[in-house]
Design goal:
The protein is 13% helix and 18% strand. By secondary structure, the chain is of the alpha+beta class. Strand 4 and strand 5 form a beta hairpin. The chain starts with a helix and ends in an 18-residue tail after the last strand.
Length: 239
Amino acid sequence: ALAAALGLAAGAQWDPTIDPACCAYPERDPRDFNWPYSHLLYAEVVPDVVGAFVALTELELEYPDGARVSYGEHIAPAAAANTPRVRFDLEPDRDGSSLHTLIAVDPDVPFRDTPTERERILWLVYDIPGNVTASGRTLVPYAPPAPISCDEADNLCLPEHRITFLLFEQSVGPLHLEPEDDAMGARFSGSARRGEIRFKTRDFGARHSLGLPLAVNFFETAAAAGADDGNGGGRKDEL
């Protein structure tokens, strides 16, 4: 009865060797049989970015300097400066002919407690053949997160940004971009600032019949303490 109340899998045994104080978020608790979805719920990626879904694969991302995206663990902005490598499995019901879309957004602009610019698009690659992301078509080239510092007088400011990556299967085949998609891509090929373009993952998914994501992963980041963002530690729009 206790196992059921705690959401443990049938037949799961409580491990008395694990410290009861173990595993504060974002650390993984080995007793959490709903991980990693539990971290998406705890951090409110579900429902802030995407609705409830069932993961069908694991989305792995690693930056050139070795930093790995892992369900809420912190990555400094400098470590996420360059495009990450992406890996995901196709089995059991997809193969090299399957097409996918990968989206990365920051839903916490300018700050998580005041996300007036939700969502900021950071990366969008579509028509990915199989799991070869480099062979997909880029609508929005990768841009690193650019968090700014909270105002020192704002004690309620939440500086963490949840940089969220979502993988979708294109079950209807190649994407046919709508005029607003083309316009967004054209602006990013020029000098448009990320903060000037609003994006909603849900809207893009509905527009292209992407359905629910196959996988979601995210990391948290924040401006480094004492970082000079050119705003005196206050709020402003960033690139």
